[in-house]
């Protein structure tokens, strides 16, 4: 049976309760949007496979509870993440201010190599905006992160932001990736040889054409 994926990465969604982490995930994996807010309890995850540069990347995306009371549990998931979304809600100045706290938790608990991007969600709610796009841009630059304004509601920049973080994780794991490419190529070469051998064995002029 063909391999379903070449590499597996873990991504984590962090941010205050209600910024839309679960909705971002549901939109990305199932193309669904729920208007009700049912707070995540602890952590939950969903999977999706993306193909980047010919590599099938399986991503396991962990959705964490934004509520303070679950922080002890959720922090245990930081250290196994290769990529992190820091999410705020563009209609909540408070959720934007808290990004500093989320980022400092990431510095403390996640691996040094972890890749991060900043996401300002609910961009469809322009009339309620409290955080200017330039503020998001500026903060992202301070941290050296990419920045996306998204809407899980209108499906804006969802695929783009998940793909971008996955690309960054792939780049950061380039060494392992090159090893993977070699083994993929070796597998392909072996498969080619096997095909050739099969043709030699079964071809009509196998005695004449075959050198093996
Ligand atoms: N208008 C709008 N509403 C959104 C968007 N994303 C999420 N919401 C709404 O915001 C509320 C909270 O969304 P959730 O995805 O449950 O938030 P969360 O960050 O996972 O919350 P916790 O699990 O408590 O940490 C829900 O009522 C969603 O429908 C969006 O892009 N636009």
List strands and helices in order, with pairings.
Layout (H helix, E strand, L loop, with lengths): L6 E9 L5 H10 L12 E10 L2 E10 L6 H5 L7 E7 L3 H5 L1 H11 L5 E7 L11 H11 L2 E4 L8 H15 L1 H29 L3 H4 L3
Parallel strand pairs: 1-3, 1-4, 4-5, 5-6
Antiparallel strand pairs: 2-3
The structure holds guanosine-5'-triphosphate.
N to C succession of SSEs: EHEEHEHHEHEHHH
How far the N terminus sits from the C terminus, by CA atoms, comes to 28 Å
Structural class computed from helices and strand pairing = alpha/beta
Unreliable runs = 188-194, 196-212
Shape field: globular
Strand content: 15-25%
Helix percent reads 40-55%
Radius of gyration, CA atoms, in whole angstroms: 22 Å
Largest sheet: 6 strands, mixed
**Strand elements, count:** 6
Widest sheet: strand ordering: 2-3-1-4-5-6
Oligomer classification: single chain
Bound molecules: guanosine-5'-triphosphate
Mean pLDDT: 87
Number of DSSP helical runs? 8
Membrane topology: Lipid-anchor
Organism: Megalops atlanticus (Tarpon)
Subcellular location: Cell membrane
Protein name: Ras-related protein Rab-15
